[in-house]
Amino acid sequence: MARLKSHTAEQITSAVKEIQEQTDRGSAIVGAAMMEEMLTIVLQKRMTDMNRTHYDAFFGQNGPGSTLSNKIELFYAFGLCNEPLYKAMHDIRSIRNRFAHRIEPLTFGDPSIAELVDNLSSVPFDAPNRRQKFTGLLTLILSLIFATGTDDIRVKFIGETHSVLYIDLLKQLLPEHADVMDKVFAKYNAD
User: Fold this and answer.
1) What is the arithmetic mean of pLDDT over 161-170?
2) Which letter, b or e, does each residue of 74-96 get, where b requires 16 or more Cβ atoms within 10 Å of its Cβ?
3) pLDDT tens across 37-52, in order?
4) CA of 65: how far to CAs of 138, 176, 177, in Å?
5) Please, what are the domains in the chain?
């Protein structure tokens, strides 16, 4: 699995236009797929740089970042969204699943899907019909995910961010190597 590259605002706008032009089933499935890809990109930006083996293990089959549900959970756990956005993303996933796992023709008016769309947002979202409510809220969610990913902020190893503290902790844990650590640290800071 290749590491994904960030989207441009133009690509997001184009994707949203495509989602709006799809059938109801297409809007739900393509929209959720776009949301999943964008979540993957933002999560990548927040994580330490990983080699291909670690990346594949994390985002590949059975990895912690392998499913849309897991990516939503990670997005929330990393503090990248609030509770209402977290719920809305899971609701989008549920709507996608209803469309994707049923063979009969479905629309946003189908009772099992209509109920999910009606409960999609705790904030009143005025739209003429369920399809427009779904695509409008999905567009908002995609915009929020995109905005969250504009900065490349990643979790860093403590040695990168607090090197003095890290060396002091190492010296406490391994006092017999304190002199060597001081020499390595001095050389590292001199370079």
Assistant:
1) 73
2) bbbeeebbeeebbbbbebbbbbb
3) 999 989 988 887 788 8
4) 21, 40, 38
5) 9-148 (1.20.120.330), 158-190 (no CATH)
Size (the chain), residues: 191
- 64: amino acid identity, one letter: P
Please, is 12 exposed, middle or buried when counting C-beta atoms within 10 Å of its C-beta (0-12, 13-18, 19+)?
middle
Instruction: Pull the structure tokens for residue 158.
Output: 């403590």
What the block records as the tokens of 154 is 């990643």
Residue 76, C-beta contacts closer than 8 angstroms, at least 6 positions apart: 86
CB-based burial label for 185 (10 Å; 0-12, 13-18, 19+) = middle
Any idea which residue has 């989008």 for tokens? 92
- Name the DSSP letter for residue 177: G
Residue holding tokens 């929020």? 144
**Model pTM score:** 0.77
At 111-135, the pLDDT tens digits run: 999 999 998 876 677 889 999 999 9
Does the pLDDT of residue 165 top 90, yes or no?
A: no
Helical ranges in the chain per DSSP H: 9-21, 24-46, 52-59, 68-77, 83-100, 111-118, 130-148, 158-161, 163-173, 178-190
Distance of alpha carbon 146 from alpha carbon 101, whole angstroms:
28
Distance CA 117, CA 139 (A): 14
